[in-house]
Automatic annotation (TrEMBL), chain A:
Residues 1-67 form the Roadblock/LAMTOR2 domain. InterPro entries: Roadblock/LAMTOR2_dom (IPR004942). This is DLRB2 protein. It comes from Halcyon senegalensis. Pfam families: Robl_LC7. Belongs to the GAMAD family.
Automatic annotation (TrEMBL), chain B:
The keyword Ligase does not apply. Signal peptide: none annotated. InterPro entries: Dynein_IC, WD40/YVTN_repeat-like_dom_sf, WD40_repeat_dom_sf, WD40_rpt. Keywords: Cytoplasm, Repeat, WD repeat. Residues 110-121 have a biased composition (Basic and acidic residues). It is found in: Cytoplasm. GO terms for molecular function: dynein heavy chain binding; dynein light chain binding. One of its GO terms (cellular component) is inner dynein arm. Coiled coil: none annotated. The lineage of its organism: Eukaryota, Metazoa, Chordata, Craniata, Vertebrata. Residues 95-127 are annotated as: Disordered. GO terms for biological process: cilium movement involved in cell motility; inner dynein arm assembly. This is WDR63 protein.
């Protein structure tokens, strides 16, 4: 995906945008395979040791938030 | 009646008398059986012929096979008369015997009624006489009987041939005609059965067909290559940002995202309780492990004889290099003044952890250096403050390589050799020559580096420079006094303070700024070469260096002056719109003496202005110790009297920008900016004097305090706030300086210098290194 608006450093943004598009598509197609009529991906959360990445997909756009989960 | 052998009879009394079966005398209801001999009955029949009671059963009696007949008294007239005759032996037996057993069984049954009321007593099957229903005829027809008597042949061989040997041969029966007769099956044309219904099993399987294809793939070829990521131009970005679609998307999506963020805020779903438990356990149960391991100890007989270490600083870039400044011991300072010329030259020398004996580098100082700092942007520049108030600068760029190689060649290398020999050859030398030879070949003297700039005595401090700090690279005071952003991102300014009540801002002369750290060394060497003898290019800077701004802290009314001893720099975060980096502006914090009211007069004609929305303030801590915070715009500071003696350490916590630790005398206190009524933590009077202190670099709640008896107190604010968490004795004399350093993620060092001139390098154990969760 092409970043439109970001609060991170440019290179990080591009990396996240490029890498997250594919898993989101994959997750969406998976959800639609399971229940073709009714289901669609609403939210994707990936948790790693250091960060939590949250993706909210839409037809044309993706909203990506990267958060540090440890309070 | 179903019982063809039972013949009811009427017995007259006469008959009863004859046969001794009188009712109620011989036979009773219970004892109803009477066996009468057959002969008697026949006799009776003959004598009384027609009137005999046995007349109707005469034939039966005559035909009766047995000797005795059973006559049963039928009290209840079961069979119609009061007696009955049993006509067959078997029936007689059965009647005689089973009723007995039945009676017994009935008795037993009554006993067992509670237990098994349902169990029927076993009655063996009673033989009944076979009643012919016409099946005999069928059996007769079907049975096979021989109708014709069999003809028997006897065949025997002639007598003579008995016992003779015989040969057997095979003969195929089918070849000889008439040797066998068969009845072969043939299809009978007159006979046919039509199968109207047939059970057949059916299974459905998919039709499977195998097919294969093969494509030709000569070699992999990139269809397309992307060298840089696609990006939208700014107009396109603007356009898409303002489009309706984006607005709709954001409205639809933002709720979900908010929920997720809230969830994250509320709790950490993946919190590993077991792991957290282990961390707590390892901390709580490991009291004996909390200690500082002595890693190395340095002392130098040459330069540190009868001297103490004034200040210790780790080299920020090179692992294992620590710089130490030597100075007179405090109590000796005034005594030995006349002997000063005889004493050795004041130096700062560099020690390497790998070479505890020889200093790696020695910097020559005009006077004893009280404190010094490496420049944060270029570790080759060192600024130091002397005890006579001057400020000196050193540039050790040309020794940088040597310091780095100190790691691989612990015995030290000649200075000249370094600059001319390649690093690879150096390594070869190292491996080939034994270390002993190398020692002989090297200089016994480590290289000496002279200061490259020295401030003018006239404009320096009048008293000892007690604290010196580099201003961070994005902050530059210019002549007008307003803080400016420094775009060059290198440290160019110093601030010093001294008990002569002034704070000076120094600007490093432009010619001295190296462009990049050790990459343009050749260029620099052209500009200002530093042979070990005379700095000829920067000679003009000697004794001419002037401070940029001078701030006098003096009190207007009572005329007492402040003697600032320590400066602490504060960082304010201020976001610039253009650059992406978060820029901070420093705020000077000075510690100043107490006095009811103060006024700051600034020697330069301009007052320090406030840049935009940044407020700068001063935190001042002085000889007599109250701690002040003076915001720059105002003139009225707030003062706090906590420490009874001079403060010697004022430091911001590396984790919280507004928490300041001040240590002095017998107290220490932790302050928070904005909290104006006092320190947030204040220690009680401790028995000894605290002489040095430092925050821990990795754990927010830990700091080290050195005492005058050579002990180090490790305070862990999360464990106990009333006493140190751990005490350790390092040396016999007073601790003069503490400096922690993170050399590698596993090794954290604490350099502790004491009054005897010994530098102890201690390794901080892991419990003191790794912060606990949520610390």
């Amino acid at each position: 995906g092409i970043p439109v608006r970001t609060t991170l450093h440019n290179s990080t943004t591009i990396q996240y945008a490029g890498l997250l598009h594919q898993p989101t598509m994959k997750a969406r197609s998976m959800v639609q395979d399971i229940d073709p009529q009714n289901d669609d991906l609403t939210f994707l959360r990936i948790r790693s040791k250091k960060h939590e990445i949250m993706v909210a997909p839409d037809k044309d756009y993706l909203l990506i938030i990267i958060q540090n989960p440890c309070e | 009646l179903g019982h063809p052998e039972i013949f009811p009879l009427v017995f007259t009394t006469k008959t009863q008398e004859i046969f001794n079966c009188r009712v109620d005398e011989d036979v009773t209801e219970e004892n109803c059986f009477k066996l009468i001999k057959k002969e008697d009955i026949i006799q009776d029949l003959k004598t009384r012929a027609a009137i005999s009671d046995f007349h109707p059963v005469k034939r039966v009696v005559v035909e009766y096979p047995g000797e005795e007949l059973l006559v049963v008294f039928d009290a209840k007239f079961h069979y119609g008369q009061n007696f009955y005759l049993v006509a067959s032996e078997e029936a007689k037996e059965n009647i005689l015997k089973p009723p007995e057993t039945a009676e017994e069984k009935e008795e037993k049954e009554e006993e067992n009624r509670e237990g098994t009321p349902e169990v029927h007593p076993y009655k063996p099957p009673v033989h009944k006489p076979w009643v012919s229903l016409g099946s005999e005829k069928e059996v007769e027809e079907e049975s096979v009987k021989e109708t014709v008597p069999k003809i028997t042949y006897m065949i025997s061989r002639a007598q003579g041939k008995f016992g003779a040997p015989i040969t057997f041969t095979d003969r195929n029966a089918s070849q000889v005609e008439d040797s066998y007769i068969e009845c072969s099956s043939y299809q009978d044309k007159t006979f046919s059965i039509k199968m109207l219904e047939k059970d057949v099993g059916v299974q459905i399987i998919p039709k499977v067909k195998e097919a294969s294809t093969q494509t030709k793939w000569p070699y992999p070829k990139n269809a397309a290559t992307q060298y840089f990521p696609r990006q939208l131009s700014s107009e396109e970005k603007e356009e898409s940002l303002s489009s309706m679609k984006l607005k709709e998307f954001l409205t639809s999506v933002h709720l979900r995202m908010e929920i997720a963020l809230q969830q994250n805020e509320i709790m950490n779903a993946f919190f590993d309780d077991w792991k957290a438990l282990a961390e707590d356990e390892s901390c709580s149960g490991s009291k004996p492990n909390v200690h500082l391991k002595a890693y190395q100890s340095f002392t130098d007989l040459h330069y540190l004889k009868k001297r103490t270490i004034g200040c210790v600083c780790w080299h920020p870039a090179i692992y294992g290099i620590v710089a130490v400044s030597a100075r007179e011991r405090l109590y000796e300072e005034h005594v030995n003044l006349p002997d000063r010329s005889l004493l050795q030259q004041s130096v700062i020398f560099f020690l390497s952890l790998f070479d505890p004996i020889h200093p790696q580098l020695i910097l020559e100082c005009p006077e004893d250096i009280y404190c010094f700092q490496f420049s944060p942007s270029d570790p080759n520049i060192i600024a130091g403050g002397c005890i006579n108030g001057q400020v000196a600068l050193w540039d050790i760029s040309q020794h940088e390589e040597k310091l780095q190689n100190a790691k691989t060649v612990p015995d030290g290398i000649k200075v000249t050799a370094v600059n001319t020999v390649n690093a690879s050859v150096l390594n070869v030398l190292q491996y080939i020559c034994p270390s002993l030879i190398q020692v002989q070949q090297t200089n016994t003297e480590p290289p000496l580096e002279r200061y490259s700039a020295l401030s003018s005595i006239q404009y320096s401090h009048k008293k000892t420079v007690t604290d010196i700090h580099w201003l961070p690279d994005y902050f530059e005071d210019n002549r007008t006094g307003a803080p400016l952003e420094n775009k060059a991102e290198i440290c160019v300014q110093l601030v010093t303070c001294s008990p002569d009540c002034s704070i000076l801002f120094w600007d490093i002369p432009a010619t001295k700024l190296p462009q990049q750290y050790s990459s343009e060394k050749t260029e620099e060497e052209d500009i200002f070469r530093m042979p070990s003898d005379v700095p000829h290019t920067s000679k003009h800077l000697d004794l001419c260096w002037k401070p940029l701004i001078k701030i006098n802290l003096c009190e207007s009314g009572i005329n007492t002056e402040y003697g600032p001893v320590r400066i602490s720099l504060k960082e304010l975060h201020y976001h610039y719109k253009i650059s992406e980096k978060v820029q901070s502006l420093d705020v000077l914090q000075l510690l100043s003496k107490d006095s009811p009211s103060t006024e700051m007069s600034i020697s330069s004609s301009k007052t320090l202005k406030v840049l935009g929305s940044i407020s700068t303030g001063f935190f001042v801590g002085t000889e007599v110790t109250p701690v002040f915070f003076i915001p720059l715009g105002q003139k009225h500071p707030q003062k706090y009297t906590i420490h009874t003696e001079s403060i010697h350490t004022l430091q911001r916590s590396p984790f919280f920008k507004d928490i300041i630790l001040s240590i002095g005398g017998q107290h220490f206190a932790i302050w928070k900016e904005g909290v104006t009524n006092g320190p947030i933590l204040q220690s009680s009077c401790s028995t000894g004097r605290n002489t040095a202190g430092h925050w821990s670099l990795t754990r927010p709640g830990v700091f080290f305090i050195g005492r005058d008896d050579g002990n180090i107190d490790i305070w862990d604010l999360l464990k106990k706030t009333y006493e140190p968490a751990h005490l350790q004795n390092i040396s016999n004399s007073m601790i003069s300086f503490i400096s922690p350093w993170i050399a590698s993620p596993m090794q954290h060092f604490l350099a502790v210098s004491d009054d005897l001139g010994v530098l102890h390098v201690l390794e901080i154990c892991q419990t003191l290194n790794y912060p606990l969760r949520n610390e």
